[in-house]
Amino acid sequence: MTAPAGLIPLPFFVYGTLRPGAYNHDRLLLGRTAAEEEARLPGALLYDGPGYPYAVPGAGTVAGTLVTAAPEAYGELLGALDRMEGDAGYERAAVEAVRLRDGGSVRAWTYLAAPETALGPLIPTGDWFRTGPRRPAPGVPRTP
């Protein structure tokens, strides 16, 4: 399924359980991507949540992965991510300058905490994987 009419098929910047090696990556992204590469999102802060992190706009940088969906899987993947992330208190947003390892930048979708979301402690490194073991059990199928 291709992108819904009128929607530009942007890649996704993910920073939690959708990153390679994490539970939701294998559950939702495995076999549906054309490319995955390390990336950083400037202008955001990362907070710990109940088994997954939350990003919000702020004066920091969040570590993650830029995921490019396989064209034939884009629409289905977008819908699955919107449902999962919406249930967890996120809103999809287009971010303008996801930084790649080669120094380039791209526009991408990411999921940010909704304004009313109660956030846990700040993750000062901006990297959820560096804060301890982060492979939630199958009972915790959430986050970007």
TrEMBL record:
Keywords: Transferase. It comes from Streptomyces gardneri. Residues 12-128 form the Gamma-glutamylcyclotransferase AIG2-like domain. Pfam families: GGACT. Residues 135-144 have a biased composition (Pro residues). Residues 125-144 are annotated as: Disordered. CDD domains: GGCT_like. InterPro entries: AIG2-like_dom (IPR009288), GGCT-like (IPR013024), GGCT-like_sf (IPR036568). This is Gamma-glutamylcyclotransferase. Gene3D superfamilies: Gamma-glutamyl cyclotransferase-like. Coiled coil: none annotated. One of its GO terms (molecular function) is transferase activity. SUPFAM superfamilies: Gamma-glutamyl cyclotransferase-like.
